Amino acid sequence: MTAANPLPRAIPPPLEVIYAEQAAFAWRTVRYLGVRAADAEDVVHEVFIIVQRRLADYDPGYPMKRWIAGIARNVVLHYHRSTRRSADREARAQAPSSEDLTPLDRVALAEAAAVLEAFLEDLKPEQREIFVLGELEGFSSPEIAEIVGRNVNTVYSSLRSTRRLFEKAVARHEAVRRREGG
């Protein structure tokens, strides 16, 4: 009994051909899915970066247009999440005007900043980087993993443990304040 030879897998077309045939479709798709015109070119570029990265896994029996549509959909979902997070970060970063702050608010803000700065100084550089990107800048764990070049599970773990450390640091600070009668 002889083992059957698997059929050779068809080779997908080169990326240049795929791009020439599908770029307009990808652009229309990302626009129809709500990407701003100013961002569409960058989003389409990201689609084709993923196409290039995953081309070896592409099954030529599957319609190319449908495959690209799925990739475009995922990139657009990421785009919308990032856009929302950016807007949230910008809104949070808008410091209240000093006219809006009472003297008590100013003291509380300065105290909170001092607690945060002291906490950050005590962290290892890798922990600090991940904590700042995730908690202060609002990046998702996959985004942080990409930025810092680490495994996404490592980022999740680091964020979780650093959040616990931060909660403990805040609790210690609050306990000291209560003891001192503040």
Q: Could you describe the 3D structure shown?
A:
- The structure is a single chain.
- The chain is mainly alpha-helical.
- The protein folds into two domains: 15-92, RNA polymerase sigma factor, region 2, helix turn helix motif (Rna Polymerase Sigma Factor, Chain: A, Orthogonal Bundle); 98-179, Orthogonal Bundle (Arc Repressor Mutant, subunit A), CATH 1.10.10.
- It is 74% helix and 0% strand.
- The longest helix has 30 residues, at 64-93.
Q: Top keywords for this entry?
A:
182 residues; Rna Polymerase Sigma Factor, Chain: A; Arc Repressor Mutant, subunit A; 7 helices; 0% strand
SSE topology:
Layout: H1 15-32, H2 37-54, H3 64-93, H4 103-122, H5 125-136, H6 141-148, H7 152-179
- Main sheet summary: none
On the 0 to 100 scale, the average pLDDT is: 85
Q: What portion of the residues fall into strands of 2 or more residues?
A: under 5%
CATH superfamily of the largest domain: Winged helix-like DNA-binding domain superfamily/Winged helix DNA-binding domain
Domain module count: 2
Query: Which second-level CATH architecture of the largest domain applies?
Result: Orthogonal Bundle
CATH class of the largest domain: Mainly Alpha
How much is the radius of gyration in Å? 24 Å
Percentage of residues assigned to helices = over 70%
The span between the termini is: 85 Å
Which runs of at least 5 residues are low in confidence (pLDDT < 50)? none
Backbone shape: elongated
Under CATH, the topology of the largest domain can be stated as Arc Repressor Mutant, subunit A
In N-to-C order, the SSE pattern is HHHHHHH
**Secondary structure: number of strands:** 0
Q: Helix- and strand-based class?
A: mainly alpha
